[in-house]
Amino acid sequence: MNTNNVFEIRSLLQNSQSVLIALAQSNDEDVVAAGLALYMTLVKMRKQVTIVSAQKVKVELSHLFSIDKITDKITGGNNLVVSLPYQEGSIEKVSYHIENNRFNLVIEPRGEKLDFDPNQIEYNYGRGDYDAVFVLGANNLSSLGEIYDRHKNIFSQKPLINIDKSNNNTRFGRINIVENMPVSQLVAQLVKDLRLPLDQDAASNLYTGIISKYGSVTIDAVDPQALDVLSFLGRLKAQNLTNKSTPTNQQVSDQSQQRNQQGDIQVQSSDNQLGNVDHDVEDQTPEDWLKPKIFTTNKQGGN
């Protein structure tokens, strides 16, 4: 992965407390699994994370961990934000009055009139108090559906990391990670390069997402990059969750302990077997990742 991207994302995360993960409206198991693994990892880093998709969660994806965390609404407040073009000194004052059960917001220009088209006025719900935004599996921002239509200010004003596998991607992010491979593989590689605290459940989501794209995993079927990522996930005892029932909240802890005692994933070729990976992973996560970060923001206006 591009070294500059890795350094920039590391810096961005170190200075971010609240993160939004937005999934493409037409998502699949690969994209959902990648988003959930990223969500779980950032939560483990004590970030405030929201994961959203305009598409309702599919029942057939219920085996993925933290599937219940996906929402179709941007959280962080119920404020209505009215956004309009502004030039310094163009507005004299803002007031309101209520008439016939209607709330009227009155913007008085300093000159003869406000110099913008009424069609440029945008209405958004939610304060958009995010320090960074990840967009997964979207060719362009419109691919997010209503999530983008209702919250354009978030995606235009915040640092945006675009992760996608499509050759048609418009590279709309400040940081673009676009390669012809499963999104789960891209996220796994990013987590590996950043040395983020990936646990077994998040690793299993990523492994499942990768398998959903490659099908059978053999040396002849996947490239060396994929094998390297699968080996990394194997050391974390990742499992293919497909067709497995998602545990209840009360069962999660017990199931995780049981999986630690089970066999690990196997990667096979037609000629030989690479074997089970059963050694522990040395924790290489930098100590300062989980320490509280002091950050500042310079926001104009108020919510």
TrEMBL record:
Gene3D superfamilies: inorganic pyrophosphatase (n-terminal core). SUPFAM superfamilies: DHH phosphoesterases (SSF64182). Residues 242-303 are annotated as: Disordered. Signal peptide: none annotated. Residues 249-266 have a biased composition (Low complexity). This is Phosphoesterase RecJ domain protein. It comes from Candidatus Roizmanbacteria bacterium GW2011_GWB1_40_7.
